[in-house]
Specification:
The chain is built from 5 helices and 14 strands. The protein is mainly β. A hairpin with a 3-residue loop joins strand 3 and strand 4. The N and C termini lie far apart (51 Å). 44% of the residues are buried.
Length: 332
């Protein structure tokens, strides 16, 4: 059990988080899109070229909805001095991400973030900390998105009576509940392979439905590319830090894996329209090593897409969750 001084929940709950600012340009939007695999298999992919290029000027490129997760970077615990909480940032793991997108993101903007504590839970050997970030376009004052980031702080738990462990949250329980993966065949399984020797896309028919396969192949340098979007946690680049954290090598950013999965949903279910995304929930189940191939399975239930991502080589689920849509594509 962790030292009882690792966390003082009263101090943490009374803490007023500083507001933050995040400024980005069209270049940042493009680097992010490339970091989560856009145009990775086909440089002129008609569905994805709009994320990196526009014939009438870069100010018109589309922004992927998961880009809004970058607004939270300065709100992450490893970059903050939190009263009442002591932990080793090398032992921090990203547990969940919940995103609400209120309007399409502009291709460049200065963002004003209002940050608050959304949850704190004693898990014995670890603590779960949840931080909510509401992001406003500074010029117009319009609310663009909300992110709720849950992190698993190993070694920071054990600060309450184990028979009645401390737990606090200020949001609806259904937003964080684990999704039950259907036992039926997926509506779609997407394959996106970066190897030029393989055909793309692959199509077949299953039970009179179009079953597309989307196999994501992470390049060995994927984490190094994604970190250029601002997440410089050495867990994703430094072999020694990765070993201290218990991994054989640096692991991929969880938000990079989430970006690949949501990009796949946009490509198939949304028929290439990112503005159909209303909210996103992802639970990180297992680490991913750069170079592993990921298989994204999807089930369509009304306006909700339930998804699961597996590491193909290990046949292990690494991410699961749901994406809520504003409406369905007419061609589905």
């Amino acid at each position: 059990m962790a030292d009882s001084s690792a966390c003082n929940p009263q101090l943490l709950l009374s803490h007023k988080f500083p507001e933050t600012t995040y400024t980005y340009t069209e270049r940042d939007v493009v680097v992010y899109a490339l970091g989560i695999g856009a145009c990775g298999r086909n440089a002129v992919d008609t569905d994805e070229l709009k994320y990196v290029y526009h014939e009438t000027g870069q100010q018109f490129i589309k922004v992927l909805p998961t880009f809004s997760a970058l607004f939270t970077l300065e709100s992450m615990p490893q970059d903050m001095d939190l009263p009442g909480l002591t932990f080793d940032p090398r032992l921090l793991l990203h547990g969940q991400q919940y995103i609400e997108v209120y309007k399409p993101l502009p291709s460049n903007a200065t963002i004003h973030n209002k940050v608050s504590l959304a949850g704190l839970h004693d898990k014995g050997k670890a603590a779960v900390l949840e931080i909510e970030t509401r992001s406003y376009e500074k010029e117009s004052g319009e609310l663009l998105s909300m992110n709720r980031t849950s992190v698993f702080l190993r070694g920071a738990g054990g600060f309450s009576d184990p028979s009645h462990p401390f737990t606090y949250s200020n949001y609806p329980a259904n937003q964080a509940s684990a999704m039950r993966i259907p036992e039926s065949q997926p509506f779609a399984v997407f394959e996106d392979c970066s190897q030029p020797s393989q055909a793309w896309p692959m199509r077949c028919f299953f039970c009179d439905k179009l079953l597309q396969k989307f196999l994501t192949s992470f390049l060995l340098w994927q984490a190094l590319l994604y970190r250029l979007s601002g997440d410089y946690n050495p867990l994703h680049s430094d072999p020694m830090v990765a070993k201290v954290a218990g991994f054989s090598q640096p692991i991929l950013h969880g938000l990079c894996t989430l970006g690949f999965a949501v990009r796949a949903i946009i490509k198939c279910i949304c028929r290439g329209d990112p503005d159909m995304i209303k909210n996103i929930s992802g639970r990180f189940l297992l680490h991913v090593y750069p170079g592993e191939k990921l298989v994204t399975e999807m089930w369509l239930e009304g306006m909700r897409v339930i998804y699961r991502v597996k590491a193909k080589e290990r046949n292990r689920a690494v991410l699961s969750g749901y994406v809520q849509l504003h409406h369905l594509a007419a061609s589905l």
